[in-house]
Amino acid sequence: MKLIAILIVFITISFIDLPKLLKHNNRRKYIAVYFTLVLLGFFLSVLQIFVEFIPGPMLILRNFIKKI
After folding, report:
1. Which domain of life is it from (predicted)?
2. What angle do CA 53, 59, 65 make, to 5 degrees?
3. How many angstroms separate the Cα of 22 from the Cα of each of 8, 26, 30, 39, 41?
4. 11 to 4, 57, 62: CA distances (angstroms)
5. Binned average pLDDT, 10 residues per bin, the chain of 68 residues
6. How far apart are the C-alpha atoms of 51 and 38, rounded to whole Å?
7. CA distances from residue 47 to 10, 38, 57, 65 in whole angstroms, order as listed
8. pTM for this one?
9. Which of 6, 31, 43, 67 has the fewest Cβ atoms surrounding its Cβ within 10 A?
10. 54 with 64: CB under 8 angstroms?
11. Do residues 49 and 6 touch, judged by C-beta distance below 8 A?
């Protein structure tokens, strides 16, 4: 159920922003960058639902520094 809600939210946001992106001269580049960021956000949202603990970047960096 949460996955469907997130999917609806991301699709709605994309449809709201798509007409604005189509007005630019470099629309291919803008659309590619936009959808890359949207898909990254969608992927992180889905991970946050299905995985109990997602380590933050500072935790990963701290563990890396401890190993050095």
Report:
1. Bacteria
2. 150
3. 21, 9, 9, 18, 21
4. 10, 28, 36
5. 93 91 84 93 90 82 88
6. 20
7. 15, 14, 15, 26
8. 0.71
9. 67
10. no
11. yes
